[in-house]
Amino acid sequence: MNQTIKNLIQKLGEAIHESVSESEHIAGVVKNIREQGFDVLLMLEATIGLNEVEADTVEESGQQLLTSGEEDAGPFTHHDLNFLKSLRISLTEDSDEDPA
Predict the structure, then answer these.
(1) Domain segments of the chain: what residues?
(2) What's this model's pTM, rounded to 2 decimal places?
């Protein structure tokens, strides 16, 4: 991974931290918890995953196209479908299968 990408990921982490730190909504909830007699320790973990996209597989809108041989699944990219599959979510409806 090149240094530019590492710097951008660092900036993304800082932006997430800043958003949480400056959130009036979060501050209000934390204040309410403290008023109930509790200290609050908020720890968040962010996992950032990157997939390099080849220029010839991207539409002008930036959404990845399905490659030839893949079934058109509507607005979902190949990565979306893989993620859903990892959660055991199927977009196809098979009338022969028993829903479980």
Answers:
(1) 1-50, 52-100
(2) 0.47
